Amino acid sequence: MSINIKGINNLINKINKLSNIESEKIVVETAKDMAEAIKDKASTFSENADEVKAFEPRKVGNSTYIDVGLKSSESDWEKIKALYYNNYGYHPRGGATYVDSHKQWFDETVQEKEKEVKKKLKEKLKKQVQECWNEG
Q: How many CA atoms lie within 13 A of 16 on its CB side?
């Protein structure tokens, strides 16, 4: 003997679809957008702006994380060190002159683009949820 409740199968199917949303794909896309913005800023003072990257995503539970920027473990230090030192300022060759013309370039770029990237991420995820919910 079984009980048939109208609409319960529809609800179960919608919940199953929601649990299969491809959030990682959207996170990867938005991370690439952030990397491009950082590259654009870095290219104004460095020839090695291409070393700025969106790295491989890593999953922790149901969350996806992506590092965007510079990693000495993933890049040649000789290529990225100028980008690194320009972000914090430096004394060239240990001299008395302090170079800070591009100080905090990385942080400023991330802060400028943060709202835009978060909005894009939210819109794409919302669109996927709506598509899943409105299907069959």
A: 8
Tokens 């899943």 belong to residue? 132
What is the per-residue DSSP string for the chain?
Answer: -----TTHHHHHHHHHHHTT--HHHHHHHHHHHHHHHHHHHHTTT-TTGGG-EE---EEETTEEE--EE--TTTS-HHHHHHHHHHHH-B-GGG-S--B-TTTTHHHHHHHHHHHHHHHHHHHHHHHHHHHHHH--
Closest by CA position to 89, among listed 104, 74, 75: 104
**pLDDT (0 to 100) of residue 136:** 54
Return the axis-axis angle of helices 105-134 and 23-42, rounded to nearest 10°.
160
Distance CA 30, CA 110 (A): 12
pLDDT at residue 43 in the model: 94
Q: What is the pLDDT of residue 4?
A: 64
